Amino acid sequence: MPMTGKLEGTEAPERRGASAVILFGIVHRSLRHTVASIRERILRPLRSQGDVDLYFHSWHADLIDNPRTGENQLVLDRDEISRLLPEARGLIEDQGEFDESLDWEPYWPDNPMRHCTDNEAAARATLMNFRRAIESQQRAWNFFNGTKSRSYDRVVVARADLLFLDELILPARPMQKDELWVPQFQAWGGINDRFAAGSEEAIRKYCSRIDAADHWLLKEKGGNSEQFLSRCLKLSGLRVNGMSFHFQRVRANGAITSMDTGVTSRVLMDTGSPGPAQPLPAAPDKVTEEMPLERAAESAFDATERVLILSRDGGESARQLHALLRHLCIVEIVVDRPPEHGEHGSEVVFIPDEELTGFEGMTSNLVSDRPYTAWGRGMCRAIRTVQPGDHVWFIEEDVALQPDAFVGLLERTREFAPALATREVHAKHNDSHWHWWGSARYSHRIPTRSFNPICRLSAELVQAIESYRKEQGMIGFHEIALASIAADQGLPMLDWRRDAESESSFGVFRFRPHVETRQWGISHPVKDARLHYDIGGVSKAPAKWWDVLCDVVAWRYRCEFPLRVLSVGQQENVFGLLRNVIPHPESEVHAAYHPLATPVPGMEEEPKPGAEDLARVFLNEGESPEILAWMISSEGYWESFDVVHLWNPDPGGLVADASMIWALLKPRGLLFVKRDLAGLDLFVTANASRAKVVFETAFVVVQKCA
Question: What pLDDT was estimated at residue 91?
């Protein structure tokens, strides 16, 4: 049944930059749950490059009844497409009629979908869904090609049941004829087959795979749909580019499919040729009010960046933050108690309780004898003063930093243009055990939490928070409210902890215990005012890789008992591990290293080992695969190491070494790897049932599950 919508711009003259989006599958199955992300993360960025036209092909089934997935007797409404995407035009056809038109029996004997389930009925259903999807892609292309009134610089084809987590970033130039872009995640040995973007010719080839699919299903054995797509694209001669672009599949009942619950937004925005994160430049030796750090001094004062320091009483730590940042932007200290006359200057803001209706409980969501805190007063101040184009920072007074670290974070954040930039963003469906989900009050469509001792909000998000307050009567706990409102509105978020370059601006940053050492970077929680001042004067970023490892080991083991550590790849690592990570006198380090290996940066100036160090170090010289194989076959090594530090920049070497190391690592032990994420992905995928990434920045830490 043809279906025509408004299709804005159809009669307009052709102009550079036009894009087309083609949806396929059962478009109205989950559209009510995904349409906001389609509009915000696909259509809106494409419209920034020019006109966008929307096309679709949809199968229709009256009912979905799948108890295994929780989709019980769900009635589908085909009119949802015209209601939710009125500008789209396309074709709706009966899925039952298509099913009856095919003889399915020849597909069953060598059904390749048995690889993903032991249930024959489920394997057959999976094959039927795949064949329907391939057919829908072809029919969507045919409708698009037969009805379009102009050519397009770029075309996107996607399933409609995808909840997009990242904003689509495509080249602003017209796509080249053989150019195709695909997601890099969930490739399963091939290419993710749920989304693609490219030229019209590239998308024609992408959507025209019916004959190849039937040949694979009927005459070949083994493989999966992702590998099938990879082979087709290779034969088509297309130039396939990977991009860091993520989404989750959503069922008709709104549930995220179990395989996708761990999928999160991208770590780095993809430009097509991403380079390595650059280290922060060294800062001068000293910081004072009169002389901000060198990089900060080069940054012009920006009145659109507004900082609200949240403080109990405007004490020393809050004043230190004000002194460090006031050269860069507008800075105010928001306090919990009214200052005495003359106690503070004009930079201190206090909003009385009687003006804070709806701002209560922002630090716990529980109305108590002290419902209003600096968080509520700060949010009220932001709502009253924010202007279009502004960005508001909330910084709690126990955050310590250097101006250089702040400027580095600000510059990196601007590259992403998020509505909310913060740390540890987790949707409830991925993090259901968090304490506050059960005790806090909230009303959000996509409950999401974040860790906000320092965070940056756009004016758009601040206004959305005010609208929520007026609708609901109160904002609620800020660790739920900020990210949830952004998610509900489809506003982009940046998790600094998942971006290696952003993370380079941070030192130790956690909920507890308190930070007790002077260090580079934005740190939390720093309760000692003197240490707060000292951290503000740290002059340069550390070059020592063990600063990160030390914090992770302390988190896992508390450094209360001796540890056995294996270092693979560099002899120089050994004594740094011994002194800086596992100082317990009974700890020991075993090393497997090549004598000609390049020294680790920053290790050349380390002091020479003493007799006590040598007594706790066991060196094994040679090729790491040989040494690891010897350990596996020898007594006393199997699952005996608490921590393994693997220094191997070659992806192939990483996978080979890590596979043997896995046999040497204790259950719940930690594998620490520097940067080599591509090789690590292969390893984690191969050990999915027993490997868990517990820390990820420029360094990655994988825990071996018990």
Answer: 96
- Alpha helix stretches (DSSP H) within 432-527: 435-439, 459-472, 478-488, 500-503
What is the DSSP code (8-state) at residue 185?
Answer: S
Task: Judge if 2-101+131-260 and 301-509 fold alike in CATH terms.
Answer: yes
Burial of 259 (0-12, 13-18, 19+ CB in 10 A): exposed
Annotated domain spans of the chain: 2-101+131-260, 301-509, 546-704
Q: What is the pTM assigned to this prediction?
A: 0.43
CA distance 122 to 124: 5
Q: What is the 8-class DSSP label of residue 705? A: P
DSSP secondary structure letter of residue 595: T
Contact 138, 159 (CB under 8 A): no
The single residue listed with the structure tokens 């097509």 is 272
Residue 590: its H or E element: strand 588-593
Tokens of 33: 């749950």
Q: DSSP strand E in 372-505: where? A: 391-396, 420-427, 448-458, 493-495
CA separation for the pair 54, 152 (Å, rounded): 12
Write down the CATH number for the domain with range 546-704.
3.40.50.150
Q: Which amino acid is at 229?
A: L
What crossing angle do the helices spanning 529-536 and 316-325 adopt, rounded to 10°? 10
**Residues forming beta bridges with residue 460, ordered by sequence position:** none
Q: Class assignment of domain 2-101+131-260?
A: alpha beta
Cα–Cα distance list, 658 to 458, 557, 662 (Å): 43, 22, 6
What DSSP element (H or E) covers 593? Answer: strand 588-593
Give, in order, the Cα–Cα distances in Å from 510 to each of 423, 452, 522, 526: 10, 10, 11, 10
> What is the longest distance spanned by two Cα atoms in the chain?
88
pLDDT per position as a tens digit, 523-547: 999 998 888 887 887 655 444 555 5
Q: How far apart are the first and last CA of the chain?
A: 55
pLDDT given at position 117: 65
CATH numeric code, 301-509: 3.90.550.10
Q: Which residues are 2's β-sheet partners?
A: 91
Helices (H), 473-545: 478-488, 500-503, 529-536
pLDDT for the residue numbered 171: 85
pLDDT tens digits, residue range 474-520? 999 999 999 999 999 999 999 998 887 888 889 889 988 888 777 77
